[in-house]
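Page 37, continued from 36.
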């Protein structure tokens, strides 16, 4: 098995980072928590150290921007009659003369094919990552309730996957209970 970084801000040796994360997990009863990762990465000799911003003024601004992104993504429209939940805002990456720019648009404003395709491509990447997590949830589900929830989440992800596939068989809305 080969480990690599998904798209985005991380670069370098993903295998080395994975090994460091596995060591942290192993020393904490099989649990990997962000607080333990940060504590380990604080050591300048840690292979994880370079992946973090240690200047507190820059890190604080970065955290506020991450909080803003989370806030924007958290607002959804609940369609009562259809029992669906849709995001109000979507993140669209647009290539322009200054380089790639990401902006949030109201879902209803996404009009051009380039913006639409860019948004769908971004969603496909997120769904691929979510699918990996869903498989883990299914694997670790022990109780009937956990197994039922894991199946419901998996079904929801499958509906999203079908809806954004280039040639979907059905464009079914995702039921609200999947969220």
């Amino acid at each position: 098995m080969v480990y690599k970084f998904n798209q985005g801000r991380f670069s370098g040796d993903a295998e080395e980072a994975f090994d460091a994360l596995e060591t942290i997990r192993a020393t904490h009863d099989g649990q990997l928590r962000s607080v333990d990762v940060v504590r380990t990465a604080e050591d300048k000799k840690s292979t994880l150290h370079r992946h973090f911003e240690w200047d507190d003024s820059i890190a604080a601004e970065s955290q506020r921007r991450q909080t803003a992104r989370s806030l924007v993504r958290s607002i959804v429209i609940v369609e009562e009659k259809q029992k669906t939940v849709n995001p109000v805002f979507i993140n669209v990456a647009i290539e322009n003369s200054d380089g790639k720019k990401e902006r949030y648009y109201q879902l209803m404003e996404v009009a051009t094919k380039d913006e639409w395709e860019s948004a769908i491509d971004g969603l496909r990447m997120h769904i691929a990552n979510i699918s990996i997590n869903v498989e883990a949830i299914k694997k670790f589900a022990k109780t009937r309730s956990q197994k039922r929830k894991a199946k419901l989440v998996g079904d929801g992800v499958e509906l999203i996957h079908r809806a954004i596939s280039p040639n979907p068989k059905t464009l079914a809305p995702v039921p609200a209970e999947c969220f």
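DSSP finds five helices and four strands in the chain. Flag for discussion at group meeting. The longest strand covers residues 89-96.
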